[in-house]
């Protein structure tokens, strides 16, 4: 059995009948990915289905390290096949599985270094696809063979192997931010006319209503599924009509609608701001490696895009902190108040007033006090419509926490910022999502120049990523060996909380950030090991 300090791994898949429901896409995608992985190792998987007409949730729960490793490797094989054949893109792969959390979890679990490193390297495939796409297929094939070899190295054990699919643990749904408000709406509606009504009488139905709400946007679709749910559960004692369900569906849908403070109005009657667009335009862009990425995330002795520092530029050398990329997004409302969102690199995790609630990485909970501090600072009085401050949230439960803290203490370091005026924000929000992503990936986010950024962080009393030194561009090393030797000057972190271990690396940039590259110990060490 695994250590009591490590929670058993569980993977939940939700859907109203895997093969009969209109709302089964994500569930099927996860199951199909698992099936592709099983096919890759010559195994099979039986069909999964709920009982007729029922609403059942399923999960995979494992308590043995070897079984958890088998599951992850099997899923990795399925993801690799899906990426290679175009059945999934990298954004989908990230949402469903391909995250640093996997290697972090396996490291805490005590897995072999080879397995932990495999999943860490797997997350770099997106960089290979973006920076050196000609190497992607070879990297996928190399990763697939490594996953198969690792899977074969885990001995079969009849005593620990068990059927992966188990009953759904309701606890997570009860902790969902919609649960309590949904319970109030359902209890006030009292669709079965229960008298006297106990506070937990509709608990099972509330759990299902939360699932319906999370996975549907249309009020009509929510109404239909709510009607089907109560009709199935209560039969003739359920006396409500579909029209009654539509009103309840409307009330439930309001839980997902941004509060008025996030309604952006250039003119009367403007629609609520699109969270997806806000998320896209404020995502922090990927930073390229200084030396070119080759197969399996190893470096070549060639500068990326054959570009380095020129003689006229100063090179600003910052420590690269190893944690979770995060952001605080400030939005000015029509009544000149300041609203805020908190996000990770890919997702929005929290909106002021609990309109979004995602506990991922404890980022939102940790950064809320900082966000509240920012909206009352003199920065809020400046002439901008949107402002973003980027931080690395580190320590705590992050992968490299031991390099910064021996008590799992969490901290942050701010490293970049930009603002948009009202006209710029309006123009961007009028664009389709793909155009916003294109704007971002082509380096059009108007980041502060270095002096302006440092001044802002000092004025707001923010903890900033340390500027280690500045050098003339002509003096910055270009060769692989010289760069690695230069990097070793900064081997010990400058942002230790209770302890100071190994730094992740450095970020080098020009003052205007038009040229920016990352130089990480693991990339150079991995390359020297080959």
UniProtKB/TrEMBL annotation:
<dbReference type="Pfam" id="PF13108">
    <property type="entry name" value="DUF3969"/>
</dbReference>
<dbReference type="InterPro" id="IPR025083">
    <property type="entry name" value="DUF3969"/>
</dbReference>
<dbReference type="InterPro" id="IPR023162">
    <property type="entry name" value="Apc36109-like_dom_sf"/>
</dbReference>
<dbReference type="InterPro" id="IPR021122">
    <property type="entry name" value="RNA_ligase_dom_REL/Rnl2"/>
</dbReference>
<feature type="domain" description="RNA ligase">
    <location>
        <begin position="316"/>
        <end position="514"/>
    </location>
</feature>
<dbReference type="Pfam" id="PF09414">
    <property type="entry name" value="RNA_ligase"/>
</dbReference>
<protein>
    <recommendedName>
        <fullName>RNA ligase domain-containing protein</fullName>
    </recommendedName>
</protein>
């Amino acid at each position: 059995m695994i250590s009591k300090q490590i929670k058993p791994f569980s993977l939940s898949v939700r859907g109203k009948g895997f093969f009969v429901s209109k709302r089964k896409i994500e569930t099927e995608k996860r199951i199909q990915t698992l099936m592709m992985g099983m096919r890759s190792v010559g195994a099979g998987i039986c069909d999964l289905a709920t009982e007729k007409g029922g609403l059942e949730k399923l999960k995979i729960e494992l308590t043995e390290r070897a079984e958890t490793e088998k599951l992850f490797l099997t899923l990795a094989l399925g993801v690799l096949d899906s990426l290679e054949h175009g059945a999934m893109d990298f954004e989908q792969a990230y949402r469903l599985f391909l995250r640093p959390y996997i290697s972090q979890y396996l490291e805490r679990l005590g897995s072999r270094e080879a397995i932990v490193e495999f999943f860490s390297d797997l997350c770099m495939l997106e960089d290979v696809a973006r920076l050196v796409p000609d190497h992607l297929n070879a990297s996928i094939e190399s990763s697939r063979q490594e996953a198969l070899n690792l899977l074969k190295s885990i001995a079969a054990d009849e005593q620990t192997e068990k059927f992966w699919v188990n009953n759904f643990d309701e606890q997570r749904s009860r902790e969902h931010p919609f649960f309590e408000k949904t319970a109030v709406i359902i209890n006030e509606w009292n669709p079965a006319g229960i008298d006297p009504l106990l506070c937990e009488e509709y608990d099972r139905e509330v759990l299902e209503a939360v699932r319906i709400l999370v996975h549907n946007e249309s009020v009509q679709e929510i109404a239909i599924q709510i009607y089907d749910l109560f009709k199935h559960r209560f039969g003739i004692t359920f006396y409500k009509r579909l029209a009654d369900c539509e009103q309840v569906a409307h009330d439930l849908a309001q839980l997902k609608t941004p509060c008025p403070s996030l309604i952006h109005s250039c003119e009367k009657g403007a629609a609520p701001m699109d969270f997806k667009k806000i998320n896209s335009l404020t995502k922090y862009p990927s930073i390229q490696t200084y030396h070119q990425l080759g197969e399996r995330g190893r470096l070549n002795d060639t500068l990326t895009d054959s570009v380095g520092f020129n003689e006229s530029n100063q090179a600003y050398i910052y420590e690269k902190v190893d944690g979770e990329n995060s952001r605080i997004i400030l939005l000015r409302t029509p009544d000149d108040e300041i609203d805020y969102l908190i996000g990770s690199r890919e997702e929005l995790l929290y909106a002021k007033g609990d309109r979004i609630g995602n506990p991922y990485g404890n980022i939102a909970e940790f950064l809320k006090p900082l966000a509240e501090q920012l909206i009352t600072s003199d920065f809020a009085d400046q002439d901008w419509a949107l402002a973003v401050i980027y931080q690395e949230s580190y320590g705590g439960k992050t992968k490299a926490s031991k390099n910064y803290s021996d008590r799992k203490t969490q901290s942050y370091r701010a490293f970049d910022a930009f603002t948009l005026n009202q006209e710029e924000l309006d123009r961007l929000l009028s664009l389709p999502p793909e155009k916003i992503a294109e704007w971002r990936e082509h380096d059009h986010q108007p980041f502060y120049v270095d002096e302006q950024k440092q001044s802002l962080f000092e004025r707001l009393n923010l903890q900033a990523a340390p500027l280690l030194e500045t050098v003339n561009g002509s003096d910055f090393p270009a060769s692989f060996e010289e760069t690695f030797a230069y990097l070793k000057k900064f081997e010990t972190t400058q942002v230790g909380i209770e302890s100071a271990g190994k730094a992740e690396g450095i970020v080098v940039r020009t003052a205007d950030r038009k040229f920016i590259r990352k130089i990480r110990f693991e990339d150079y060490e991995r390359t020297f090991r080959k």
